Amino acid sequence: xxxxxxxxxxxxxxxxxxxxxxxxxxxxxxxxxxxxxxxxxxxxxxxxxxxxxxxxxxxxxxxxxxx
Length: 67
Known about the structure:
By secondary structure, the protein is mainly alpha-helical. The chain is about 50% helix and about 10% strand. The radius of gyration is 13 Å and the shape is globular.
């Protein structure tokens, strides 16, 4: 069953894994997936506070500002 929310920590792991697969295979699909995870991470970064938010709420869009 899919979960609608997104987690920052999962996307950190996905970015690292997908970039590793891209380097190992040279398959651009893995780089595309890594860049998707990276884009999500950038949306979770709060520059003024110097922190990453935990992810999204159950709608998959709204930033979850609660730890």
